[in-house]
Amino acid sequence: MKLVRDTWLIFQQEVGLMVRNPVMVAFSLAQPITYLILFAPFLKVVMVDRGASSYADAYRIYVPGLFVAMGLFGGLFAGYGLLSALRAGIIDRCRVTPVSRTGLLLGRALMHVCLNVVQAVVVTLVALPFGLRVHLANLLVSYALLSVMVLLSTSISYDIALLVRNENSLGVLVNTVGQPVSLLAGVLIPLVLAPMWIQRVAVWNPFAWATDGMRALFAGQITQTVVWQGALIMSGLAAASLFWSSHLFNRDVS
Amino acid sequence: MIEATGLRKSFRVGRGRGATTVDAVRGVDFAVRRGEIVGFLGPNGAGKSTTLRMLATLIRPSGGAATIAGVDLLRSPAQVRRRIGFVAQASGTYDDSTARRDLVLQARMHGLSKSVAQELAVGAIRAFQLDEFADRKIKTYSGGQRRRLDVALGVIHSPRVMFLDEPTAGLDPPSRVRMWQEVRRLREEGMTIFLTTHYLDEADSLCDRISIIDAGRIVAEGTPSDLKREISGDVVAIDFAATDVADGAAGDLPAATKLLAEAPYVHAAEPVDGTLRLYVDSAATAIPQIMRALYDRGIEPGAIEARRPSLDDVFLAKTGRSLAE
Ligand SMILES: Nc1ncnc2c1ncn2[C@@H]1O[C@H](COP(=O)(O)OP(=O)(O)OP(=O)(O)O)[C@@H](O)[C@H]1O
Ligand SMILES: [Mg+2]
After folding, report:
1. Which residues form the ABC transporter domain (chain B) (predicted)?
2. CATH for the stretch B2-228
3. φ and ψ at B270, to 5 degrees?
4. Phi, psi of B72 (to 5 degrees)
5. Of chain B's two ends, which shows fewer C-beta atoms within 10 Å, N or C?
6. Which residues pair with B194 in a beta bridge?
7. CATH says B232-308 is which class?
8. Is B46 in the pocket of ligand 1 (CB under 6 A)?
């Protein structure tokens, strides 16, 4: 109960600060929308003999991939915020109070979830005039899947941040991990177009499962096994990673 | 209210074979009674912040024990957190937040309801004179305004024990005096205050008792006047760096030190950046003798001054170094 209250408290504070900085939020939307407008049309051409005969098809394939990319990178950079709060002494100030320490971390992570869902909603709205059509129920499930994904990538970022404790190493690690993971999840170009060996490697990439699940949702196939498989893999990993980051966070810092 | 015995902290730095340990605090004992203002006085790196961070449950001591407001620090840190307030050396506020928002959040982190938290924030804004900028972004505050907010945040829940790490670092003299008044007001409200400082005048005028800490150890402890009384007699300070003295005067310092250290009427002679401090029984009788001795050697001192011992003289006597800038 206390964990819920304190998580909510920190979440409110973090969201409040984010809302006070609308320019930042707007900037964070620039990249996904650029890809949406300038990259998705390529897919129509590339995927023409894979069932993408129209822009609507291209967006139905690309938007779920974009969600995964946003969920992955949106969370992976969350560690910067944690490091700057640590450096500014904000975390220390909170840790001297009886506030739940796990709540301090969870409230921050949920702010990133919230931000990413808002971005995903904007992306969805922008894609509609290009012909994207998706069932509302399926769309809501895809937002839920995105949320779990953001929790996973955010907590991975926290793990790294708490271990390396400096922004430069965090940036290098996040990029070296994030790029191959996103390409091997087929977020840009679906893995069906990839050579066999890449497909074999991608089986071990949890985000590839999430991407498949996400695409199935947009294709209107909510009953496909890959939907719950992807969700289960993401939830399990997110829980494990969150558990580990809260362990790292709660242990004696400095 | 606070009792510490043999409190130690060593940090491991580096990894693998290159790892070394830094003994930041090497076993300190002290006790603070209810309603006292007690200060840790020491130079940079003495271990003041480390001690405070241990007492505030931020880092785990490597050894020793402490009780705070009757609660064991190591066994029930969560209980300790309910009873203390802490103001860190570097302020811990969100740049983009405002004083009011952070005050409300702080009170709510102590478990208070939203309406109570808002009331407390209003009270704190009034008490610490934050009205003028309470709803402005914190990054626009001056250093003094920010420090007042830091202290307001630390005491918003009226803790029984308050830890202040260098409450006046970076403040100009009028702001420092105002901050001292705030600290005294907190004591009048019933708080017990433990603070650190490297300002001699702050330790002298604000603290009921002080512990002088150097290199992780307490080297002296007592009320400022008792500590000064330990240095019996007077201090004669001879300035060799004064600008109106002929060239080469500064070069006379070592010679004068050597000469006067051996004089029977001088207990101790300590050179401290360009001045020579002499500890004597009575300045009135020593000064003529000192002047004569110097003239006989052809040494011409700049300014010469007699005064009562200060805390810096205590510090010098205990550590062999001066704290004064
Ligand atoms: N996290 C840490 N890791 C390694 N060494 C540390 C750490 N924190 C402090 N130290 C070392 O411990 C010693 C005491 O530091 P501390 O911050 O307690 O000093 P201080 O008395 O507060 O000094 P100042 O007046 O500069 O604030 C210093 O030598 C410092 O380098
Ligand atoms: Mg310090």
Report:
1. 2-240
2. 3.40.50.300
3. -130, 115
4. -75, 125
5. C
6. B38, B163
7. alpha beta
8. yes
Pocket test for ligand 1, best of B7, B8, B50, B202 (most atoms within 8 A of CB): B50
SS3 for B192?
Answer: strand
* Residue B9 in tokens: 């902290």
| Ligand closest in space to the Cα of B87 | 2
- Judging contacts by C-beta atoms under 8 Å, the chain B residues touching residue A13 are 94, 97, 101, 105
Rounded distance between C-alpha atoms, residue A76 and residue A71, angstroms = 8
Domain that holds residue A159: 2-250
CATH 3.30.70.920 intervals, chain B: 232-308
The answer to whether A254 and A99 are in contact (CB under 8 A) is: no
3-state DSSP call for residue A164?
helix
How far does the CA of residue B156 sit from the closest CA of chain A (Å)? 11
Residue B17 has pLDDT above 90, yes or no: no
B33's CB contacts (< 8 A; 6+ apart) are B1, B192
Number of domain units in chain A:
1
Q: Which residues of B touch A17 (CB under 8 A)?
A: 94, 96-97
This complex has an ipTM of: 0.87
In chain B, which residues fall in CATH 3.40.50.300? 2-228
Residues of chain A with pLDDT under 50: 254
Nearest to A104 by CA among A5, A186, A240: A5
Residue with tokens 């650190």: B196
Work out the minimum CA distance from B315 to partner chain A, whole angstroms. 30
Reported as type and span, the H/E element at residue B290 is helix B283-296
Q: Does A17 touch chain B (CB under 8 A)?
A: yes
pLDDT tens-digit readout, A46-80: 877 777 778 888 889 899 999 999 999 989 999 99
Is B9 strand, coil or helix?
strand
Any alpha helices (H) in B209-282, and if so which ranges?
A: 224-230, 252-261
Angle between helices B143-155 and B173-188 (to 10 degrees): 10
8 Å CB contact between A127 and A63: yes
Give nearest CA residue, ligand 1 atom 28: B45
Phi/psi for A109 (5° steps) reads -60, -40
Q: Which residues pair with B159 in a beta bridge?
A: none
Q: Rounded to two decimals, what is the model's pTM?
A: 0.86
- The response to whether residue B62 sits with its C-beta less than 6 Å from ligand 1 reads no
